[in-house]
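Lab notebook: predicted structure, single chain.

Context: the supervisor wants predicted structures on file for every construct in the current expression panel, including those that have not yet been purified. This is the next one on the list. No modifications to the sequence; it matches the entry in the shared construct table.
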Amino acid sequence: MSNLITPEPEEAGTHGIDQAKLTRLMEAKHAEQSLPLAVLAGLASSVAAAFIWAAVTYATNYQIGFMAIGVGFLVGYAVKYLGKGMTPAFGVIGAAFALFGCLFGNFLTAFITLSQLEDSSVGVVLFAFLSSPGLVLDIMKETFSPIDLLFYAIAVYEGYRLSFSGLSEDEMISVQNQPSSPETNQPE
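Prediction complete. Output recorded below exactly as produced.
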């Protein structure tokens, strides 16, 4: 079921789009866009989402894969809110940072789990990770599950889809031609 409103044939000419208003609105919206702010929002929100993911895993002692979907939502909305994008380039930024947030969330979760299993301080485990970068990849491989791909794909899709927007319903109404009143259409 669609929310689109199709005018009746006799009304078709009275509610058309005012192209001059639409052009001015689109120029104003494009001027508000900011790729640097979108990148900053994507980075900050993906890191924050990864830490939230790790904190939930730490608190529950359970790796929750569908947290990746939340990462996609958070990143997508942050990129859209700060970047104010209207083009797919903003979606690519959202998708990339959603994937980064998922991977970083899994990494932090593995990091916390390893420090608990080894009964070591976070500093000792961090030093081990930093001194042996191959260890990071090995741990990511060990903790990977095929279902992660599904959750990552959903997160990437949401990060893309939610990172840019078109015109709102109110903006579309504002660019419509105003219908003429019946008394102005009366022949004299």
